Amino acid sequence: LTTPPRAHRAEPHNTSTPPLHTHTSTSYTQTPVTRRQLRHSLRMVDPTAVVSVTAFMLIGPILVLLNKYLLDSTNFAYPMFLSGLGLAFAGVVAHTAHALGYLRLSNEVEVRLYDLHFWIVKVLPVGTMQAATLATGNAQYLHSGVGIIQMLKAVTPLIVSIVAFVLLRERPSQRVVMTLIAISVGTAMTAGGDKTLTGMGLFLAMMSSLTEAVRLVLTQFLLQDLKFGVWEGQLFLAPAGVLCLGLAALFMEVPTIMAKGDFQIIADNKLAFLMAAALGLGVHIVTGYVIKATSSVTLKVLAQARNAGLIFCGVLMYNEHITGIQYLGYLITCIAFYYYTRYKMEDGAKPKEKDTKPPQTV
After folding, report:
1. How far does CA 92 lie from the centroid of its chain?
2. Radius of gyration of the chain (CA)
3. Is the C-alpha dihedral spanning 251, 74, 154, 230 positive or negative?
4. Is 349 exposed, middle or buried (0-12, 13-18, 19+ CB in 10 A)?
5. What is the pLDDT of residues 15-51, one digit of tens each?
6. Which residue, among 220, 109, 96, 214, has the nearest Cα to 161 in the 3D structure?
7. Helix locations, the chain, DSSP H
8. Are 135 and 79 in contact (CB under 8 A)?
9. CA–CA separation, 218 vs 167, rounded Å?
């Protein structure tokens, strides 16, 4: 007789207490869980990626504006000599680091470093194209504004695809071809809307994109068997580029520099020239770290965003006039470039999927 009352008295206590206990425990543990999730999210952010991306977005534009200043404002109109100084600085730093033991190479790469045939047949062609890209890229600032130069760089994927088709017989997919057509239309609108663009400026822009495309294709074709890191690339390619630019500048620019006494410009602005050389090396190093910390696709997207920022720098700092047609053309080009990168990445993954299929038996 006493059991039911006890059970009856316990039921209200049990039915009322658990909701109160559940509610208070939930409200008590809710904040600590959120904090743990926040701390976990912060731990997931790679500091190397943040630093490298920030440096990539800053060093490149600073170098562009500094080269524009040296070539235009100081009247040191010698783009090959200026580009050679940057490559020479990179080569000296890389080889000094290797000689002091800070840059260690694999046995395969170490052997190649002293292989003259490898240097002539494989390294020199790539280094020559790199030198030509730097020289023509710097020469543009003597004939064009900062904004239009950045806009015309968007045509590089089209030229890369053409060069890859001619040299490597790579056939892009139909949707990639459509994005390349859109890039062509956008670039044509951008160039046609600029009334200050000269024939020489357009020629240098196309040559810079062409030599960059050839460099990329030659790197894929000639150096695909070696896994060059950021510093290894400077160890090999910088001396080859210095050799090419040094010979070209020796015959085409040095006589004029000596006749006009323009070496004094370097002496008067030695800190600016030294900074330009260091930033040139910094661009290559940071680019490699961005690819390592993120991906090559992220690098391309960041490069487009950086170019857009330089366009507005040209408008604000040099009073460059960008028309509505140019903005529209550049917008079309950027959208097409995004889909070009996406489709190329998807198409590149297709052969791997096919390779995973088991072979058919007869």
Report:
1. 23
2. 29
3. positive
4. exposed
5. 444 444 444 433 334 444 455 554 554 455 567 778 8
6. 214
7. 3-44, 47-68, 79-99, 107-113, 116-118, 124-139, 146-152, 156-168, 174-192, 199-222, 230-252, 254-260, 263-268, 270-293, 296-318, 324-355
8. yes
9. 9
Residue 353 structure tokens: 């999927």
Burial (CB count within 10 angstroms: exposed 0-12, middle 13-18, buried 19+), residue 238: buried
Lookup: tokens for 152: 């015309």
Give the number of other Cβ atoms within 10 Å of residue 2's Cβ.
6
Task: Kindly report, residue by residue over 70-111, the tens digit of the pLDDT.
Answer: 998 899 999 999 999 988 998 999 999 989 988 888 888 888
- Cβ atoms of 106 and 154 within 8 Å: the answer is no
Q: Which residue has the tokens 């896994």?
A: 227
What burial class does residue 82 get, using C-beta atoms within 10 Å of its C-beta: 0-12 exposed, 13-18 middle, 19+ buried? Answer: buried
- Only one residue has tokens 């790469």, namely 109
DSSP code, position 119: I
